[in-house]
Amino acid sequence: MSTSMPYRTPIHITPDHIADLREAAPSACLTWDEDTGNVEAVLPRKAIVPTRMIITSQRGLGELTDLYTAEGRKATDEDLAEDLTDIATDWLTTWPEVRAMNLMCEDLRSHLADWCVYLTQAPTVEPRTRGLPRMTDYYRLADCDRIAEVTMTWAFQEPTRILSHNPTDEARPVADLALDTGGTLTYRAASDLIAGTVWQALDLNG
C-alpha cells in the first residue's frame, strides 16, 4: 500500500515552452519545478536540481517530432505541447519516488556535469513491488550521440548497472558493467566511482 499523496496540481506545457526549449543552449531540458510549479527550459546544471522533474530534453523533443514525421504529419508546437502535457501529468504518479532518488543521485549527477555529461531524458523508476527503489538515468556526453543507461538502487546498496550503446545500434552495447559498491564505500566515494565509469563508457576516444 502506497502512502504517497498524489500531486493534483496540473502541469501545463504551452507552445511557448516548446519554442523556449528549441532555442535554448545545447543539452537544455524542459522541467517542472515542484517548489514553484513553473515549467521552464533550463541549462543542464539546473535540470539536476532534485525538486525539478525533467519532462524532456532537446534530443527528446526532436525524437517526438520525428514520430510525427514518420506518420506523415507535421508536428506543430501546439501538438508537441499537448503531448508533453499528457506525459508530464502521467509522471506525477511516480514523482515522489523520482524525487527521492533525485536527492540520492545529486552528487553523482553533479560530478558528471563537471565532465559535460548530462541527462538526456527523464529518469525512469521501476514499479516497486519488492526490494529497494530502483531508477535509471540516461546520460550523454556533450557533442556525442552515445547513451549510457545507469540503473541504481537506493544508496547504491545493490550493484549499479551501466549500459552504454550507440543509438543506431542498441543491440550491441559498447559497455555493460555492474559496479558493486554497497557496504564497501562511502556514499561520496561510490558516487565518484560510478561517475568515472559512466564517463569512460561514454568517451568515444576511450
Fill in the keyword field for this structure:
6 helices; 3-stranded antiparallel β-sheet; 6-stranded antiparallel β-sheet; globular; 37% helix; 206 residues; alpha+beta
Structural account:
- The chain has 206 residues and is an alpha+beta fold.
- 37% of the residues lie in helices and 22% in strands.
- It is built from 6 helices and 9 strands, in the order αββαβαααββββββα.
- It has helices at 15-23, 44-47, 58-70, 77-91, 95-114, 187-202, and strands at residues 29-33, 39-42, 52-57, 117-119, 124-125, 134-141, 147-153, 160-165, 175-179.
- The strands form 2 sheets. Strands 4, 5, 6, 7, 8 and 9 form a 6-stranded antiparallel sheet that branches. A 3-stranded antiparallel sheet has the order 2-1-3.
- β1 and β2 form a beta hairpin.
- α1 (15-23) crosses α4 and α5 (95-114) packs across α6.
- The protein starts with 14 loop residues before the first helix and ends with a helix.
- The relative contact order is 0.12.
How is this fold's topology laid out?
Blueprint: H1 15-23, E1 29-33, E2 39-42, H2 44-47, E3 52-57, H3 58-70, H4 77-91, H5 95-114, E4 117-119, E5 124-125, E6 134-141, E7 147-153, E8 160-165, E9 175-179, H6 187-202
Antiparallel strand pairs: 1-2, 1-3, 4-6, 5-6, 6-7, 7-8, 8-9
Helix pairs in contact: 1-4, 5-6
